[in-house]
Design brief:
- The protein is of the alpha/beta class.
- The protein has one domain: Alanine racemase (TIM Barrel), CATH 3.20.20.10.
- 42% of the residues lie in helices and 18% in strands.
- It is globular and about 45 Å long.
- The model has no long low-confidence stretch (mean pLDDT 97).
- The structure holds pyridoxal-5'-phosphate.
- Pyridoxal-5'-phosphate binds next to strand 8 and helix 9.
């Protein structure tokens, strides 16, 4: 896709985001995370070349490594399932991992971050839709994981991520986003040792509801790149 088309789509999205902020009277900053997993490399280069100061995200470890080593003028996020043996591709190439969902993975990220001499920012992914395939920990496991995570020096939990059920029933999506927002607020007051500030919630089909319920990051793929 050409740069001009990409810029139009991006500007359109930002206009919608700004309208939604007015509509729902929210005043938090909302970052667009451009999910490039469906796009060819030329499209990603064109998008990065726009110089929009937008983070890009991949969901496969090798794609992240390949693309982040080719396109260096942007920050890269990771949001796919994490396999420990692939962390060596992820950690050196990402400023934020959205999809951390077990204490074992936290321990492994910590180890790989020590090797890379970095503090890795992460989000904890919650399974708010209770669909098996989506990954994420259960809301009631939150304290358990935050208590244990506090001992690892090379990770920093900066927020939460969740994916709503894929449905046309907006009341279901709103309920799930609402639950995550509530959990976010309570963890913020309970765990002052972490700098919890990001709520990654909403994709192409439901970002309007993410914004309504307090998202600070929306992860947009198909709307920008299809
Ligand atoms: C692919 C993906 C997205 C983007 O999905 P779209 O519906 O295309 O915007 C967002 N979040 C995660 C975790 C993804 O895997």
């Amino acid at each position: 896709m050409e740069a001009k088309t990409l810029l139009e789509k991006y500007n359109n999205l930002i206009e919608h985001v700004n309208n939604l902020k007015l509509k729902y009277s929210v005043n938090q900053n909302i970052s667009v995370i451009a999910v490039t997993k469906y796009s060819d490399i030329d499209t990603v280069k064109n998008f990065a070349g726009l110089g929009l100061n937008v983070s890009l995200a991949e969901s496969k470890a090798q794609s992240l490594r390949d693309r982040a080593s080719t396109i260096k003028n942007v920050s890269w996020h990771f949001l796919g399932r994490i396999q420990t043996n692939k962390l060596k591709y992820i950690i050196p190439n990402t400023s934020l991992i959205h999809s951390v969902d077990s204490i074992e993975i936290i321990e492994d990220i910590n180890k790989e971050s020590i090797k890379n001499n970095k503090i890795q920012n992460i989000l904890i992914q919650f399974n708010i839709s209770e669909e098996e395939q989506k990954g994420g920990i259960e809301l009631k496991e939150a304290n358990n994981i935050f208590d244990k995570a506090s001992q690892y020096q090379n990770i920093n939990i900066i927020g939460l991520m969740g994916m709503a059920e894929y449905t046309n029933d907006e009341s279901i999506i709103e309920r799930e986003f609402g639950l995550l927002k509530t959990k976010f607020e309570s963890l913020k007051t309970e765990y002052k040792n972490f700098d919890l500030k990001e709520l990654s919630m909403g994709m192409s089909g439901d970002y309007h509801l993410g914004i309504k319920h307090g998202a600070t990051m929306i992860r947009i793929g198909s709307l920008l790149f299809n």
